[in-house]
Amino acid sequence: MRQELLSLPKGLAEEVSKNLVMVARLIDEDPEQAYAYSRIALRLASRVAAVREAAGFAAYATQKYNEALAEFRAAKRMTGSVELWPVMADCERGLGRPERALAMAGEPEVQKLDKAGQVEMRLVAAGARRDQGQLEAAIVTLQSPELASHSIQPWTARLRYAYADALLAAGREDEAREWFGKTLEADKDGSTDASDRLAELDGVEFVDASVDLADDRVQDDVDVDEEEDDQDPAEVAAAERATDVAEYYDEDDDEYEPLEESEADFDATDEIVVVEDDEDDERDAGRDKA
C-alpha cells in the first residue's frame, strides 16, 4: 500500500493515508464511521488499488454487498491478485446469490489462493450450501485435511466452529458438542463464542453478577422509600428538627454543645431588646434628681 501511495503527490498521499488508517482502526468497532472515512479516501484517490480494497471492506462491514463487490472487482483488476476471491464470493451470498458463490468456489482462481485463502473459500462454499438448505452438503464441504489437522493455525478456530455449527443445525448434537470443545481449544483469543455455545448445549446458564447487584441496589432504594412512607409525618418532622438544632453550637465554650432550641430559633429579623445593667439604672436616676 505504501508503494501505491507514493505515486500520489506528497500532500495528497498523507491525506489519503490518514483516512485509510482511520478505516482500519474503526472497521470493527464502528463500521459506519469507517465507511465514511473510506469514502473520503476513495474520492481523493480512486485509482489506487489499496483505496478501492479498503473501501470494499468498509462497505462489506456495513453489509453494502453490491458496493463492496464492485470495489473488490476494481481492486482485483488493478492488481491482478486473486486474494479477494473468497470475500467476493461471500458478497454474492450477501446479495442472495449462493449459486454464484458456489460457482466461484469451482473456478481456477481458487487454486491460486494460499492455504488461508483456500480455507476461507471452503467456509464461504459451506455457507452457500447452508443458504440453499443443504446441511449435509455443507458438512461434507468443511471436512478437509485442515479440519482434521491437530496443528493450530489462524483459521483453525473458525473452521472448527463452522463445522460444529453445521452439525448442530443438522441435529447431530453430540458431534456438535465435541467440535465446539475442539474449537475452544484452538480459540485462544476468544474470536468465537464457542464457550457459550458449549455451555448452552450442557444446560449451563450464566448469570450477570453486575446486573444482580444493580437490581439489589434498586430494591434497597425501594425498601427505604417504603419505610419512610410508613413513618408518622410528625415523627419525621421532629427528627429533622432535632438534627437542625444539633447543628448549632456555642462558640465561647471549649467544646461544641448544642444550643437550646429557643437560641437555635433566633432570627436576625427578630426585635432586639437591650437590657441595661444596674450601674446604668443608678446613673440615670441621679440625672433625674438633678
UniProtKB/TrEMBL annotation:
Coiled coil: none
InterPro entries associated with the record: TPR-like_helical_dom_sf
Compositionally biased tracts (Acidic residues): 221-233, 247-283
Spans annotated as Disordered: 221-290
Gene3D superfamilies given in the database record: Tetratricopeptide repeat domain (1.25.40.10)
Tree of life domain: Bacteria
Identification of the protein by name: Tetratricopeptide repeat protein
Source species: Streptomyces subrutilus
